[in-house]
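A quick aside before the break. I want you to see a complete sequence-to-structure record at least once, exactly as it would be stored in a machine-readable document. Don't worry about memorizing anything.
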Amino acid sequence: MKLSKLLERLEYECVQGTLDITVSDIVNDSRKVSKGCLFFCIKGAVTDGHQYVPEVVEKGAKVLVVQDAVEAPADVTVLKVQDSRYAMALIAAAWYGHPAEKMKIIGVTGTKGKTTITYMIKSILEAAGHKTGLIGTIETIIGDRKIPASNTTPESITIQRYFAQMAQEGCDCVVMEVSSQGLMLHRTAGFTFEIGVFTNLEPDHIGPAEHKSFEEYLNCKAMLFRQCRLGIMNADDEHLDEILKGHTCEVETFGFCDTADFRASEAKLVSGPGYLGIRYHVTGKRNFHVEIDIPGIFSIYNSLAAIAVCDRFGVKEAQMTAALQTAKVKGRIEMIKVSDTFTLMIDYAHNAMALKSLLTTLKEYQPKRLVCVFGCGGNRARSRRFEMGEVSGKYADFTIITSDNPRFEEPEAIIDDIVTGIEKTNGTYIRITDRKEAIAYAIHHGQPGDVIVLAGKGHEDYQEIRGVKHPMDERVLIAEILEEDKAKEK
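That is the input. The structure line, written in C-alpha cells, reads:
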C-alpha cells in the first residue's frame, strides 16, 4: 500500500525520505521485520523500539515511525509523530481499509462485568439475526473460529486485523472488552465506537506496571466516552459524574435508581438443585420480566447493560429473554452439574475484591454450607494471598486451600501465606496441594444444600509450573473424578 495513503488521517512530520513509496507490511516487533516494511518504534514498559533501528533497517525496513530522534540511512523514510502508539492505531486502521466503519462496534469498560456483558450482548444480537464478532479476556470469536486471548484488549494492529477478518466473515456488529490499559495505550484509537458501556469502577490495576493512581485509572476509563456515539452508563455507580466529565456522546443509563432509563425492580433470587439464578422486571424504556441462570445482583446490572445496548438495535423482548437465559460465560459463575443435592461452580475470582463479591453473593442464597476451593499464583504480590485467605475464612463456611499457577515458587510456601490470612478469622480449612485431589475432596464431601465454588482458574485450562504451562482444565478434572467414581462403584 502507498505510504501516503496510510498517513491520510495522521498528523506527522517527514524528517527524511519520501512518501512516494509502497509499504509491504506494518510491524511493531523487530523479530517480524521484512523487506520494505514500516516499523513502529514503540516506547514500552520494558523495551524501547527506537533502540532497534539499526537492526530493523539492516533487515530491510523502509519506513520508521518514531517519537524520538533516530539516526537512519538516507534511503529510509523517517516519520516523527507525537505518540507512536497512537500513530500505529491510525495507520493500522488505514492498512486494513478502516474495517470498523463497515460494522457497529460496541465497547464495554469498567472494573467488573465486562466479560459477562460482552457474551450477553453477543447472545442477544445473534438471536436477533446480527452476525457478531467478539474480542475479550477469554478469546476472540470470528465466525466459527475461537482465538485464545493474551490481553483483554489486544494491540491496535491485532484489533484492526480482527476487525478486517470479522467484516470479511459478514459480521455487522462487534462487541469488545475495553480495558483501561487498552485506552491508555491507544489500542482502540483510529475508529469510533457505536456504543460504549460503563459497568462500574473500583480501585484495581493500580501499581508500577499498570496505573499510577486511581485517578489515572478512572481517567483512562473515561476516554471511551469521548470516542463513542452513545454511552450506556451504570446510573448507580458513585463515580458516574467523574466518568462523564468531558464526554462527547449521547447518554443513556441503567440501574435500580428511579432516574435510570432501564430500571430493575422486583428482584428475586431463584434456586434449585444445582441451579442458582435471579429474576427481575425491567421498566423504563422497556417493560418485561427477565430470568437469568447466573446468580447475584451484579447479574441484573450485567443483563440491564446488555438490554440497553440491544434496545438500540430494536431487538424484540422475547429474543432478549430467551438469549439471556442461555448466555453462558466460561469460568464466570459457571455451574457444573455433579449432584442433585448440592451446587458446584467454577469462577475466575482471583483477587480479594472479586472473591469477596462472589462469596457474599452466594451467601445470599443461604446455602447449608458455602465451600471455597482456591489457591494463589506464584511470583505475584504476597499480600494477595493474605487478603484472599482472610476473605475466604470470613465468608466461606469451609475452605479447601490448593495450588494455582505456582510458577517458580513452591506451592506449599504459597499455601502457608494463605493460611496466615485465614487464621486471622474463625474460618475452618484443609490444605490439599494437588488441585484435582482438592476438587475430588470437595465433591466427595458435598452435603445436601451446599454451594461449592472453585475459585481462581475460571476459563484457564493450564497450570503454570516453573515456566511451563501444563494442560489443566477444571471441567476435565471434574469429569475425570466422576468417571473414576463410577469405575469404583462397578
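Two observations worth writing down. The chain has a mean pLDDT of 95. The first strand starts at residue 13 and ends at 16. We'll return to this after the break.
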